[in-house]
Specification:
alpha/beta, Rossmann fold, Four Helix Bundle (Hemerythrin (Met), subunit A), 3 domains, four-stranded antiparallel sheet, 16 helices, globular
Length: about 450
């Protein structure tokens, strides 16, 4: 299996530190607002990597952090007259709901920054004792000049970074490149050897990785926007504190763009996952993201999502047979083609082509084609299960249908029976009106010899 390592800028054969075991870390959310399509791309991408590594038989420990102490959280708490904990708790719950709705697997470990403060303070103390950091009036900064490899990940030599930087008036830093490990904060701060304060963003990930995965890990992944300065700073502080290599493989996914601009909250051009799921289902969003190579930018458009919806529909409407759980797909040609694609730096577009080939075979009743399709599609996180409605959601849809037809229906059985009677009486106008009203409510009817059934679009 080959993965593109951002640090070396090369596609490299993947070899875990410990045979058959993988320690994988992904930078998680700062919980202060809704997750958007850019987050969906990041977390679906690494969910697929996690699923695929497990599919290949690796024992994977996937850790994704939660940043619940940050300037943005404090600003929101102040604006809404809430505590930072109230803000972070609310938005973490919303984030989790969004991830579940996208069919992302829950990480094995999901540490919170506020629960790892002791480890952060310990690393900062180590860095000060080794001369890599210094305290200045309650703040603590990392001495970038003491780490010659700084800039290697982002391909920005330290000399060029220094020439482009400047110290602001009143800045307590020795060097304009030095970054905060600990920030003085009398109002919201925690007790530390340097007075009340809170951690810098970068030290949080270093501390959580060291605590839960160890000093050196196999894979560190995240969005390309984190390469500099976040991941660059993680490398510097971790390698100086631990005295060893921090990460063996750095992986980064590309941006989602709208009108060629990166989607971000700061630019105000983002689409929330919740809003997107009102129009497109999770399978469609996942298909849209996986059609493109994870390292390339993805241009968002309704046309692209509609095309993805058609692709998903084609795959999920494959002629389904009973899945043979005992069938060994590893001996099939399709398995080999699928793994060759995924082993080539997660070439998901090629992997999807294999799924379409299997779809065609399933529709032609080729033995075991649907079983292979089902098992491989699951590796990419697609769900073949139909969405279900709660009692409240169904009641709301029946209310909508009743309003359009001018007749009150309490159950779907009543609607189906009314259509059945209209067809028996050859009243095609009424039968069509019922079908159209259901379609408008997102419900489709399926007629067969056994009778009529319904499902959500």
């Amino acid at each position: 299996m080959k993965l593109f390592n951002s640090y070396t800028a090369k596609s490299e054969e993947f070899t875990p530190i410990e045979e058959n075991k993988i320690k994988m870390y992904v930078c998680g959310p700062t919980v202060y607002d809704n997750a958007h399509l850019g987050h969906a791309r990041c977390y679906i991408t690494w969910d697929v990597l996690y699923r695929y590594l497990k599919f290949k038989g690796y024992d994977v420990t996937y850790c994704r952090n939660v940043t619940d102490v940050d300037d943005k959280i404090l600003k929101k708490a102040d604006t809404e007259n809430k505590t930072p904990e109230e803000v972070s708790t609310f938005w973490y719950k919303k984030f989790t709901e969004s991830m579940n709705a996208l069919n992302n697997l829950k990480p094995d470990i999901e540490p919170f920054a506020t629960k790892t403060l002791g480890e952060m303070i310990s690393i900062v103390k180590d860095l000060i004792n080794k001369g890599f950091a210094y305290e200045a009036d309650g703040d603590v900064y990392f001495r970038v000049s003491k780490f010659p490899q700084y800039g290697m990940l982002s391909k920005q030599p330290i000399d060029s970074l220094v020439s482009g930087a400047r110290i602001e008036v009143g800045d307590k830093k020795e060097n304009p490149l030095d970054f905060a490990l600990w920030k003085k904060d009398e109002k919201f701060g925690y007790n530390s050897p340097w007075g009340k304060g809170r951690p810098g963003w970068h030290i949080e990930c270093s501390a959580m990785i060291r605590k839960h995965l160890g000093k050196t890990i196999d894979i560190h992944a995240g969005g390309a926007d984190l390469i500099f300065p976040h991941h660059e700073n993680e490398i510097a502080q971790s390698e100086c504190a631990n005295g060893c290599k921090f990460v063996n493989y750095w992986l980064h996914n590309g941006f989602v763009t709208i009108n060629k601009e990166k989607m971000s909250k700061s630019l105000g051009n983002f689409l929330t996952i919740d809003d997107l799921l009102k129009v497109y289902d999770a399978n469609t969003i996942r298909f849209f993201i996986l059609t493109n190579h994870y390292r390339m930018p993805v241009e968002f458009s309704d046309e692209a999502l509609q095309s993805a919806a058609a692709g998903v529909k084609r795959m999920l409407n494959a002629k389904q047979t009973q899945v043979d759980e005992a069938f060994d797909i590893t001996q099939t040609e399709e398995y080999k083609e699928f793994t060759e694609a995924m082993d080539d730096d997660l070439n998901t577009s090629k992997a999807l082509a294999v799924l379409f080939d299997l779809t065609n075979k399933a529709n032609k009743d080729v033995p075991n084609a649907f079983t292979i399709l089902y098992k491989l599609a699951t590796v990419l996180g697609f769900s073949f299960s139909k969405p279900e409605l709660s009692k409240e959601e169904l009641a709301e849809k029946l209310k909508q249908v009743s309003g359009e037809l001018g007749t009150t229906y309490e159950t779907m059985e009543e609607v189906i029976e009314a259509r059945k009677n209209a067809r028996a009486e050859k009243n095609w106008e009424i039968a069509d009106k019922i079908r159209i009203a259901l379609d408008n409510a997102g419900i489709i009817l399926k007629d067969s010899k056994e009778g009529t059934t319904w499902e959500i679009k």
